[in-house]
Amino acid sequence: MGIAEVALPTMPGAFVGHSPASNWFLRAGARRLKRNPNSVLGTRALQGHLKIPGLRSVRRQCQRIDDLARVTEGNGNWVKDAVNNVSQVLGDASVQGHAVGGDGSLNGSSVKPPPHQRRKTSSVEDEAWDLLRESVVYYCGSPVGTIAANDPNDSDPVNYDQVFIRDFIPSGIAFLLKGEYEIVRNFILHTLQLQSWEKTMDCHSPGQGLMPASFKVRTIPLDGDEDATEEVLDPDFGEAAIGRVAPVDSGLWWIILLRAYGKCSGDLSVQERIDVQTGMKMILKLCLADGFDMFPTLLVTDGSCMIDRRMGIHGHPLEIQALFYSALLCAREMLTPEDGSADLIRALNNRLIALSFHIREYYWVDMNKLNEIYRYKTEEYSYDAVNKFNIYPDQIPSWLVEWIPPKGGYLIGNLQPAHMDFRFFSLGNLWSIVSSLATTHQSHAVLDLIECKWSDLVAEMPLKICYPALENQEWKIITGSDPKNTPWSYHNGGSWPTLLWQLTVACIKMNRPEIAAKAIEVAERRISTDKWPEYYDTKRARLIGKQARLYQTWSIAGFLVAKLLIENPDAARILWNDEDAEILNALSTNRKRGKKILKKTYIV
Ligand code: GLC
């Protein structure tokens, strides 16, 4: 976009995306057409009249994704009822104990069932389903997502009344596992439309392909007609978020959900759509773009993922790397081969190998590795350096020396020149297992660690977002004295029930579902009585979080997904990535050939 188009009158401090709604709605459509030739929005939204009993005639201006898809694809292949039909046939199968492969076939080998096999649905589960359904957000009459928190007594919901991309993932999975595919399909297609909005903060536009952190359905007066309103989707790309954080994880989760949708429903028509393929490529291009990076890991600012406040996770945080790796693998499965995509596929494959090597080799810590770091020489110049990142052993924190168990290990939170963030971050570690970014040995070791450190990581509510908390001077310097992130609260060592679903997928993948089953039992004891809090505080997760929202949707959905998967472990396959033989081969070939090649290829 040229500077002239930036709408200079809005600066300073105003955001183009937040000029009067009806204007930006239309403007966004026009701009999208310019930037993205596969746009569906550019074909114009369809308009319709709809009478709501007891209300005035309301005109809604809605983006009818299905009709527009036909225009975009230009053929008659898209059958409107296909999804519903597939849902009916495959949905039943998936709830009866079979996950469905990407080709629509039922998966073969089964995963070890949990100790307490099929039970009757508990009332906690019934309540969770009711609450999840109540949290559904509609756009032009169709379900498009779930609100982040739905506490009727909360008079100041801030932005928790929005649909967050990352928060919707467990909701979407729960609906998929229940055979209810429509909401997930709508979510995927509507958020895709938001992706190409021209978003600007103080005259600066972030990279094309960025997915919003959240969106809201707004009903606004229609220009020139005081009796009429229209519904519009109002996205937040971080330009309104606290701290103006960039939602790097949104696009990665979107790709992961897209694959899960196809695998679970058997409906591959969504991922095959031209606009969906283009959206996927835009995310990939943004992530794979050349920069100043020396490492294959994605370089991001602080707060660019689930931890969306300053917590000292800028640089190369594990969570982003695990999601990145997973999204690359998922996208590779879904990209349709075509002229012009060869370079992208090549870049994607190279990155997968480099990323996998880098994380497995340099992020891993266990007793042996810690001892190695403890005895590191420093200031090593040259290709032969053992201590490549110049880590000073003095930075090994004293808690870790006590904490690291003889059996077990984990991937550290972040790695930068002369800096290892030794904190244990749950989501990054769990998703490294799920995506096979961690080796099989490492994956088991992480689960060993969780078992061994149960009273630190699970205690009275699963699961600590990170361990340990930053305290005293460290808290002051690293969080900027953030009163919401005080020690053992919120992102700083708080416990988040939503993480239960990722724990369950990881445990099932490693054929150790009993660990997840135990954590689910812990959660079930109090989560409903406590009104489904967003997070818990204190070292042992004894108290409901100081500022935690109640009826937090992803706590509810995370619990439901964990329950559904533990009863039907095979269904977890829609989420995990198997170890890729080619990557493994490339890594072992490189190792066999000796350090020289690896050094030249991946490490500078
Ligand atoms: C908080 C969390 C973030 C979540 C949002 C909505 O900001 O840190 O991860 O997406 O709330 O629930």
UniProtKB/TrEMBL annotation:
<comment type="function">
    <text>Invertase that cleaves sucrose into glucose and fructose.</text>
</comment>
<feature type="region of interest" description="Disordered">
    <location>
        <begin position="101"/>
        <end position="125"/>
    </location>
</feature>
<dbReference type="GO" id="GO:0033926">
    <property type="term" value="F:endo-alpha-N-acetylgalactosaminidase activity"/>
</dbReference>
<dbReference type="Pfam" id="PF12899">
    <property type="entry name" value="Glyco_hydro_100"/>
</dbReference>
<protein>
    <recommendedName>
        <fullName>Alkaline/neutral invertase</fullName>
        <ecNumber>3.2.1.26</ecNumber>
    </recommendedName>
</protein>
<comment type="similarity">
    <text>Belongs to the glycosyl hydrolase 100 family.</text>
</comment>
<keyword id="KW-0119">Carbohydrate metabolism</keyword>
<dbReference type="InterPro" id="IPR012341">
    <property type="entry name" value="6hp_glycosidase-like_sf"/>
</dbReference>
<dbReference type="InterPro" id="IPR008928">
    <property type="entry name" value="6-hairpin_glycosidase_sf"/>
</dbReference>
<keyword id="KW-0378">Hydrolase</keyword>
<dbReference type="GO" id="GO:0005987">
    <property type="term" value="P:sucrose catabolic process"/>
</dbReference>
<keyword id="KW-0326">Glycosidase</keyword>
<dbReference type="GO" id="GO:0004575">
    <property type="term" value="F:sucrose alpha-glucosidase activity"/>
</dbReference>
<dbReference type="GO" id="GO:0009507">
    <property type="term" value="C:chloroplast"/>
</dbReference>
<dbReference type="InterPro" id="IPR024746">
    <property type="entry name" value="Glyco_hydro_100"/>
</dbReference>
